[in-house]
């Protein structure tokens, strides 16, 4: 297993570079690598044993494989496969496929890391590959958005690196398990870096602009898997050190409501999806043990909805109310929205039920309210008008959407016990309340939140405020 794991991680980088040399084989090499990752992810997911691979014992450089890793690796494989399938019909160059596979491989590396130094290297590679993909159109706007992302990402990683050095000073090791014995400054700095990288709570204010202004397939990758590379190490630390779990849960609940509020006052479809991503990352953090299945459901839905958003007649929901879309575009949109709302038959229902089951009574009550907020957001897409006239779904997107919708249905196999009568009645009741609130309060709403905090010059100030909050939390 050790040799297989190391070969699998290095192979993705090798394949990414080989695409430069053999551009005519770009799609075949990319799909072959993703297929291999999918197979590896399924094997890790089905294997019930916890596997620890020590690479450099003195520095604590370690890989950890368990079901949580398996879920995230499988999510990465399915989302990347859908994005590559979409790109076949978009005439992307070999450079795009090369960067997509390098990004895919470095994301997988994060999902098996158990030490802060290996994680740092993987996150830096992700930052560079994501920067190149966001700037791929080479327009002034895309280059500005990419540079903004790179600056925020590198600043966050600078805080993280200082924290990682403090962990090594305290433990003579970079292993995650040393975090609890490290000075409070180390915990606060590492948390700040990962929260910013993952787009959690106020640290995620960079996310709506970056995800909404990127090209459609890049938005799907960013929202489907890239942001999860900041959240996964926090989940791993929460599972290894139970003392950190209450902090993660509080941040998760705050993030879930923050994203909902941000999305409710938006009219731009891509910005709504991006703000919803912030909210859903909060769901991952409240229950680290159940986060794998939720990540899978969220990744599939967000890649589906972002890929569909690229074909809508307009990004503005007010304009979409005036110009009905073709029914063939609306159907995948409503199915993805139902899954994200937690409607039975879809993986979103099973994932929410598993998450709520893992919580204490008061945390469950709070997240039940958050689930109403999620359904309220996606009511904006479900109740859009449609007709059987105009430009319908393109053939390439049709196949990709079908693939993702099938995956959303099949994902239920991971938690069949969710299908009890009380769970289904609770889910349907929450959605009914949300839809009623949509027509009474949200649909007539004209107010939009100011975007002043999203401005580039304010993002670093927000990071400083979060650092103070983390110091206060850790010292308390």
From TrEMBL:
Pfam families registered for this protein in UniProt: Proton_antipo_M
UniProtKB keywords: Cell membrane, Membrane, Transmembrane, Transmembrane helix
Intracellular or extracellular location(s): Cell membrane; Membrane
Superkingdom of the organism of origin: Bacteria
Bilayer disposition of the protein: Multi-pass membrane protein
TM stretches of this protein: 6-22, 29-46, 68-89, 101-134, 146-167, 187-206, 218-235, 247-265, 285-308, 329-349, 365-384, 396-418, 424-444, 456-475
Assigned GO CC terms: plasma membrane
Keyword Chloroplast recorded: no
Signal sequence bounds: none
Location of the NADH:quinone oxidoreductase/Mrp antiporter transmembrane domain: 115-376
Reported function: NDH-1 shuttles electrons from NAD(P)H, via FMN and iron-sulfur (Fe-S) centers, to quinones in the respiratory chain. The immediate electron acceptor for the enzyme in this species is believed to be plastoquinone. Couples the redox reaction to proton translocation (for every two electrons transferred, four hydrogen ions are translocated across the cytoplasmic membrane), and thus conserves the redox energy in a proton gradient.
PANTHER family from the UniProt entry: NA(+)_H(+) ANTIPORTER SUBUNIT D1, NADH DEHYDROGENASE
Protein family (similarity comment): Belongs to the CPA3 antiporters (TC 2.A.63) subunit D family.
The protein, known as: Cation:proton antiporter
Organism: Oxynema aestuarii AP17
